[in-house]
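2 proteins. here.
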Amino acid sequence: AGALPDPVAGVAVADVADTAALDALCARARVVVSCVGPYRLWGEPVVAACVRAGTDYVDISGEPEFIERMELAYGQAARDAGCLIVSACGFDSVPCDLGTLLTAREVRERAGPGGAPAGVEAYITIGTDDGRSVVGNFPTWQCAVMGFGASGELRALRKRARGALPVPVIAGPKMGVRRGWHQRAELPGRHAYPFPGSDASIIKRTMAYLGAHPADAEQGFKPVHAAVYLTVSSAWYKFLFSCYGWLFGLLASKKWGRNLLLRYSALFSYGAFTEMGPTDDDIDHTTVRVDFFGTGYSTAPNAEAPPGPPDVKVHCQLNGPEPGYALCSRVCAAAAMTLVDDDERTRAMPAGGVVTAAAAFGRTRLMERCAKRGVTFEVLE
C-alpha cells in the first residue's frame, strides 16, 4: 500500500492486508463502498476498519456466511461506534429485501387498522429483449461455489447466533416455501424454483430486526413470512436448471469439484458464467423483473378467531436493467448517497449496527433515488 494522497478527490491505495492504510482511508470517508469480493476472502478487514473509524459502509455481497459472520462479530461494536454496516446493497438483495417490505406495507394499508399482512412471495425473472442468452459475472459464480463449499460453516454460525433476535410474531399460519418447481396463474408460461441466493435469509433477518427494534421501523410495521423464487421461460430451461443444479451441488461439495467448477465455469453453467463476463452489448439487452405477491387479513387472526384464507392480496413489481452490473452499481450508489444525506441519516435510519438494507433504508428515499436510475417499483393490483 502506498501513502494516501492529499486531495479529497483522487486515488488512494489501501491493501486489505495493510491495517494502517485501511484505517487511514476509512477515517477520511463518510461512506465506504466495498467491492472486494469474494468477501469471505477479502471483506472483513474493510468492515473492521470502518467500525474502528465509525464510518458507514455498504457492499454488494450476496454471501450469507460473510454477511451473518460480520453481524455476529461487529454488531455491538458498530452500534457503539455509531456507524452502519450494510451488506447486500446490490442485486443481492435490495430488490427482494426492500421490495418485500414495500409490498407488506401495501398489504397492511389495504387491510386497514384491524388487519395484518401475512406473507410475500417474490419471483425473479431475468431475460433479454432480443432472445440472446443471459450472461452472468464470474465473481457471482466464484461466490456461489465457495459459499456452497462453506455451508457447514454457515450452519455452525447460525447455531452460535441462535436467539440473538426474537422470532417475530406473524399473522396466520406459517407460509412454507414451495419446494420443487411450480407455476402460478399470474405469471403465464413461467416455471419457478426456490432461488438459491441469499435473499430469503436476508429478508428473514430484516423482519426479525425490525420486529425487535420498533424505533427503527416505520409506524405500524408488522412482519411477514417471505419466500423468493427464480423463474425460467420453458420446460427446456427447467430441465437444464435441474440437471446443472444437481451437478453443481455434487461438485461444490468436494474441494476437487470446486476447483473444476471454477476452472471450467462456462462448461458447468451452460455458458452462463465465464471469466470474460457479459459484454457491454449483453448488459444493454438484459433486464430483470421481480413480481411480489403479498397476502394478508382484513381482520387479524387471534386465538378466538382462527385464520381462514387470506382475504387481502396485492401484486407489486420491480423492474430494472441487467442485474449483475447495471442494477447492482446503480442501487449501491443510491444506497451510499442515502447514507451521506444528513437528514435521512439522523432521522430515518438506525443509529448504528450491522443491519440489512431494508432495515437501514426502509424509511428513506432510497427507492426514489433508484427510480431516477432506472430501477422502479410499482403496485400493479
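next one coming up
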Amino acid sequence: LGAGLPGAEKLLYPLRVMTAEDRQTCAEYIAAEELDEKQSEQLVRAMREHARRTYDDDRLMFDYNPGDCLAYKYYRDALEETRNEEKRRQIVQKGLDRATSDRGREALEQILVEKEDDETKGRIPVVELDDEEFDTCLLSIAGGLQDLTVQDLKGASATNRKGAFGIVTVGKAEEDWISLPMFQPFVAGFDMVAINVDNMLDLEAFGAKTGGPGVLVVDRRVDKSQIDPEGLYAITFDDKDISFVSGTELLSQVEIVGQGKLTVLAKGLMAVKPPGKKSEWGDATAVINQQPPSA
C-alpha cells in the first residue's frame, strides 16, 4: 500500500483509522489525484463524516467513494456559506470537480440557482461542527484487561445515543465512561464497550508496539459465521473467566472442544493509547488486526 508514492508515510498515516477496504480505496485515490498531506486528512474526515451522518437525507445524493464523499463535504460547506456569494460559488466548483455521481453534481448545481431570502429580519451564526469538535464515541468501561470477568463484560452499559447530537442516557450510577474519536472501525460497531489496559504490551501479540496505559474497544455483537482469522476475540469456556485469542486460535478451539463448549463474547475493534510523540508514527494508535506470531 503506497508503494512508489512520494512521502507515502505521511500521506497514508491518516488512513490508519479506516477499514482495510477503505484504506486501499483512499490510497489509490490519493495517488491518482496527487493529493498532499492536508488533502489526505481532509479525505479521511470526509469519508468518516459521510458514514456517520445517517440522519442527513442529503447524504444519499452522494455515493460512498472518495470523490463523492469530498463533494458531499463541499456541498455542506457551500450551504453554510451565506455571506459571500463568490466564495460559495468557488466551494461548489470544488465539489463539482470531485463529484462522481450525477445526483451529487445536481445537488451542487442546485445551490447555485437558489436565491437568498431578501426579507430576512435577523441573523444568527450557524456553525457545523468539525469532526475534532463533535465526532466522538462514548463508551462505558467494562473493567480491566487482566481481571475482566464474563459478568463485567456483559454487564457494562451499552451506549444509548439519540438524535443528531448523540445525547446519552446513562443507565447506571457511578459507572466509568470514556470519550474516544469516532475512528472508522467504531462507525460500524453495534454494541461497543471499552476495557482498561494497564500495559499495552499485554496486547503485543496483536499489534501493540510499546507499553503504557490504553483501552481496548470491543463489540459485543459478533457474527460467528464470519470469524476473522487475524482478529482478536474474547471467549469463555465456563461463563466466568475470559480469554483473548486470535480468530485462528478461536476456530481451532471450536474444532477441539466443539461449538457448544465455547462462547464468543466480543470482537476487538481497536486499541488506543494517549497521544505519543509526533515522530513515533503509529505509536499513538494500535489497530488490533494482526495474527499472533507462531510459537
